[in-house]
Amino acid sequence: MPLLSLRNISRSFGSTRAVVDVSLDVNQGEFFGLLGPSGCGKTTTLRMIAGLERPDTGSIFFQDADITHLPPERRGFGMVFQNYALFPHLNVFENVAFGLRARHNDKAEMADRVGGALELVQLPGYGKRGVHELSGGQQQRVAIARAIAIEPVLLLFDEPLSNLDVSLREETRSELRELVTRLGLTAVYVTHDQEEAFALCDRISVMVGGRLMQTGRPRELYEQPSEISVASFLGRNNLIKAMRLSSSKTTSGEFKTLEGGHTLRLTVKHEELAPLNKPVFLAIRPEHVQLSTNDHDAENSLRGHIREIVFAGATSTVRVDANGLVIEALVLRTNGLEVNRECSVILSPEHLTVLKN
Amino acid sequence: MKTDLLKRKIRLHPRRSVALFLVTAIVLLYGVIYPNLSVLITSFQRAGNWTLANYREVLSQQFTIEAIVSSVGLSAGTVLLCALVGLPLAFLFERFTFPGRRLFAALAALPLVLPPLVGTVAFIFLCGESGILANGIQHLFGLQNPPWRLRGWPALLLFHTYTMYPFFYVLTGAGLRRIDASLAEAARSLGASRSIVLRRVVLPQLTPSLVAAALLTFMTSMASFSAPLLFGGDVRVLTLEIFRARQRGDFVMAITETVILALISLAALIVFQRYEGTRRFAAAAMKGAPRRREIIASGGARVLAMIAGVVFALVLVLPVATLFLVSFAQEGSWTTQTLPSAYTFANYRRLFGDPYAAEVFFNSFSMSAIAALAALLWSFCVVTLLRRRESTRAFAGESWRRLLSLLVLVPWALPGTVVAVSVAEAYGKPGSLLGSFVLVGTFWILPVVYFLRFMPLVVRALQASMEQVDPTLEEAAGSLGARPWQRFVRVTLPLVWPGAVAGTVLAFVIALGEYVASVLVFVPANRPISIAIASELRDFNLGTAAAYGVVLIIIISISMVVAGRLERLRG
Predict the structure, then answer these.
(1) With a cut of 0.85, is the ipTM above it?
(2) Are A87 and B473 in contact (CB < 8 Å)?
(3) In the beta sheet, which residues pair with residue B97?
(4) Does A61 contact chain B (CB < 8 Å)?
(5) Does any CB of chain B come closer than 8 Å to the CB of residue A81?
(6) Which of A11, A308, A329, B168 has a CA-to-CA distance to B512 between 20 and 30 Å?
(7) Selected residues 252-311 of chain A with any CB under 8 Å from a CB in chain B
(8) Hey, are the CB atoms on B475 and A69 less than 8 Å from each other?
C-alpha cells in the first residue's frame, strides 16, 4: 500500500491548466522527486499535497484516507519552503517550536525537541538568535529543523536548495538525504535541477506542461526516456527524426532519418510502438556517440565532417554534420579531431531509443 | 488515531468567513450604500414623485452654476499652484544636499499636520487684514488702511497652496526616490543631455506620482470648507452653498447640490483610476542603484540654497508660530497693534479648568477613539476578505473583490460635507434600516460620520502592511499545524500591527480636528473641539481659539511621531 496516492489530480488558475490529470504513488520511506522545468506544475502539485491548494478534480489519499479537503494544519506534513518562510518576528527557537506550540506540547518536552531538531541540523545553541542574523545556509537549516520538529508523517520540500550557492548546495544536499534516511522519513522533493533530483531521489516523476510524463528511478529515466519532453529535459540528447522502414517482427528495426537520409538499425523493445511510415524521434545521448577518424564499418556508422568543437574542461562537445543531420558527441579527448575534418559518427544500436510522440 | 483525524473532512471556509462577510456587508450597506442612495433618491423626488424638478431648479439658479464653476476652478488653480511649489521643492531636497537640508525637508510636510480649521485660523492671525503681517506693514509705512485684505480668490489660492502643496512635495519626493538611478545613467551613456534625461526618462516615470498628487489636491480642494467659510468673501463654492442651504432649511437644495459635489469628486477619482489602469509603470525588478544626492559645492550656490531654505522654513513655520503667540495673548489685548500687547497663561488655564472645555475635549477624544477603533476592527474584516482566496472564491470572485474595495474607498473620495449630509438624510427620520431609532440628534452621529470618513485610511494602512507579509509565512504556519486563528494571532498580527496601529492613530488625530462634517450634524451633546474653536472665534476670544489649536497641533504632532515610529517598526 502506498503511503501517499494522487489520483487524477487537476488544477487550473483561470485559463491556465497548471496540473493536468496527475496520478502518482509515494511509498513509505521513499525519497520521491518531482522534477520539471519552471512552470511545469510541480510546485502546484506539492502545494496540493500539503493542502495549501485544493485540486479542481481528483483525490489525494494518505494511508488510504481521503485527505483532499483536509486543511493543511490537520495533515501533519512538514514543509520546507523555497524562501524558507521563517517567521521574522520570532527567534530561531520560537520558529522551530512554532508547530509544537500549535499542538500545545508540554514545555520541557518542547525544549527537548527543539534542541534535538537544532542539533540534527547542526545548529545547536542557535535558539536565541534572530533569523535575520543567520546566513542563507543557516536559515535553510532552521527551516528544515522547524519541519522535522513536528515529527511529520511526510516531509515536503519546495526547491529548498535553490537559494544557496553552488558549493553549499551540494554539501547541504548530501546532509539532507542523510538526515531523511536516518529519521526514516518519507519525502517529496520538488526541484528543476536534474542533477539534484538524481543525487537525492529514489524515484522521480518528470512533469512537463502540467502533465506527468514519466515516473521511474533516476537511471531508468536517463537511459530510457519514453517521451521527447523527458529526453530533452533530462540532460543533452540528440533527437533524430526518422521513419520506420521494415515491418518485420524481429528484434531489430530499420529506420531512415529524415535529415541526411541515413539508415539506422535498432535493437530496442519500444520498436513495436513505432508505426510504419510515420515520423518518430530517436534519441541518443551525446556521451554514447562515438567518433572515429578512420573509415569505420561498424553498424550505424555515418560519414560527416566536424562543424564545431567546444572545449568545456574535462569534456568537449563535438558537433558533426552528417549530410545535413547534425549530431552532438561528448568526448574526453579531441585528439585528431579538427573543425572541417571528415570523421565517422557511430550511433550504437543499444543506445538508440525510440520515443513516444 | 492519526488516521481517524485525517478521515474527517473539513471544508476550508466555515462560519468564520460567513461572519466576516456579514459584518462587512452590513457596515457597507448601512454606512455607504444606503446613505448615498437615499441622497440620490431624494434628489430625484418631490412630494413622493420621481422628477428632475430639483435639478432644474437648482441649476437654473445663477449662484449654483457659479458655485460649480468656482469649486472646479479653485481646485484646478490649486493643483497648478501646488505643483509649481511642490515639484521644485521635491527636486531640490531629493537631488541636492546642503546645510540644513534635513531640517527643511522635515519642515516641508508641516502643513499636513494642521487641521484645516486650525490652519485657517492661523492664517487669519498672520495674513488677515488686521493680522501681524498686514498690521506690521501698515505701521511701518504709516499707511491709512491695511495694505491688503485677506479675501476672495487670492486668499483662497494662497491658503490652499500653503496647505496642499505637500501632496506634490511628498509624493514626487517618494517617486524620485523610487526611480532607478541607473536608468538616468544609461540615458546619459547613450548621449542624452541632462534636460533630455529629465524630459524623457525622469518625468515619464514620475507621472504616476504627479497624477496621484494632482488628484489628491483636486479632491481636497473640492472638499475645502473652512477657508471659503472664513475668508472666501464672495467666492461661492459648493461645500459652502450646501452648508448655507441647510442652515436656511432648504434641505432639497442642499441634497441636490450634495449629489452634484459627489459626482464631481467621483468623476475625478474615476479619471484617475482609469489612468492608473492603463499606464502601469512596473517597477523594474532588476537590482537598481539608488541615486546619490549631489552636494552643492560652489560657495555662492550654497549660500543661495541656504537662504532659500531659511525663507521657505519661515514661510512654513510662521502661521504655526503666530498661533502659538496668539494663544498666549490676553483676550482683548490684540486689536489694532501689530503684536498682542499682553501675554498670559489664562487661555490655557481656561482650556484645562473650564468644564465646558473639558467636555469638548472629552467629546472629541471619545468620538475619535470610538471611530478609530471601530475602523481598526472593521479593517481587519475587510482586508481578510480581500486577501483570502478561499473565502472570496466561496462568496464571490474577482469582480466582487473590486466592488468591495471600491465601496470602501467611496467615503474617502467624497467630501466630508457629502458624507455628513448623506448620513443625516438617511438617518434623520425613522427609516427601514434602523426602525424607529433616529441617529441624527444623538451623540452617535459624529462617531459614525468620523468612522465612515476615516476608515478608508485604516483599511489602506492595514492593506499595505498585509501586502508586505509574505503569504508563505501563513502557509508555513498552516503546515506546522496552526489553525486559522492561531495563524492570525501568532503570525499575521505580530507582523501587521505596527502598520495597522499607525493607520488608526492617523485616523484618530484627523478625526480629532474634524470640522467640515461636524459643523453640519453636531448637537450640544457631542460638541467637538473644532466647533468650540469656531465659536470662540465668533466671540472674538482669539487667544482661547488659538490655544485650542495649539493643543490640537501638539497632540497631532506627538501622534504622528508615534505613528512614524510604528511604521518603521514594521520594516
Answers:
(1) no
(2) yes
(3) B295
(4) no
(5) yes
(6) B168
(7) none
(8) no
Mean pLDDT, residues B402-411: 84
B298/A contact by beta carbon, under 8 A: no
Q: Closest to B2 (Cβ–Cβ): which among A52, A98, A153?
A: A153
| Nearest CB neighbour to B480, from listed A54, A98, A153 | A98
Whole-angstrom distance, CA of residue B417 vs CA of residue A60? 57
The verdict on a CB contact (< 8 Å) between A85 and B475 is yes
B494 touches chain A (CB under 8 A): yes
Chain B contacts of A104, Cβ < 8 Å? none
- My answer on whether A72 and A198 are in the same domain is yes
Residue A73, chain B, CB below 8 Å: the answer is yes
Give residue-wise pLDDT tens across range B493-552: 998 888 888 889 989 999 999 999 999 999 998 999 999 999 998 888 888 999 999 999
Residue where a domain stops, chosen among A176, A199, A228: A228
- H/E stretch holding B101 reads helix B101-107
Q: Would an 8 Å CB–CB cutoff place B486 in contact with chain A?
A: yes
pLDDT at residue number A357: 63
Nearest to B385 by CA among B95, B54, B21: B21
| CB nearest A79 (choices: B479, B490, B494) | B479
Q: How many domains does the structure of chain A reveal?
A: 2
Superfamily, domain B14-37+347-571: MetI-like (1.10.3720.10)
- Cβ of A150 within 8 Å of Cβ of B475? The answer is no
How far apart are alpha carbons B137 and B54 in whole angstroms? 49
Identity of the residue numbered B130: S
- Gap between the Cα atoms of A349 and A280, Å rounded: 16
Fold of B52-279+296-327: MetI-like fold (1.10.3720)
d(CA B306, CA B467): 40
- pLDDT 10s digits, B359-386: 999 999 999 999 999 999 999 988 888 8
Containing structural domain, residue A315: 236-355
Instruction: Looking at the complex, report in whole angstroms how far the Cα of residue B381 sits from the nearest Cα belonging to chain A.
Output: 21
Residues of B with CB below 8 A from A154's CB? none
The answer to whether A146 and A101 have CB atoms below 8 angstroms apart is no
Closest-approach residue (CA) in chain B for A79: B479
Same domain, A313 and A180: no
The model carries a pTM of 0.80
- Per-residue confidence (pLDDT) for residue B1, from 0 to 100: 35
A1 at interface of B, judged by CB pairs closer than 8 A = no
pLDDT at B453: 92
Coil, strand or helix at A302 = strand
Q: What is the CA radius of gyration of chain B?
A: 26
Placement of cell 515536503 in the chain: A156
Q: What is the DSSP string of B350-388?
A: HHHH-HHHHHHHHHHHHHHHHHHHHHHHHHHHHHHHHH-
Amino acid at B342: A
Helices (H), B442-541: 445-468, 471-479, 484-487, 493-512, 518-521, 529-538
Query: Which residue ranges make up each domain of chain B?
Result: 14-37+347-571, 52-279+296-327
Give the one of B3, B481, B495 whose C-beta lies nearest to A73's C-beta: B481
HSE-CB at B167 with a 13 A cutoff on CA atoms is 24
DSSP structural state of residue B292: P
Give the three-class secondary structure for B150.
coil
Which residue out of B391, B480, B485, B491 would a mutagenesis test of the A interface target, given it has the greatest number of A Cβ atoms within 10 Å?
A: B480
Its sign, for the CA torsion B436, B442, B445, B447, is negative
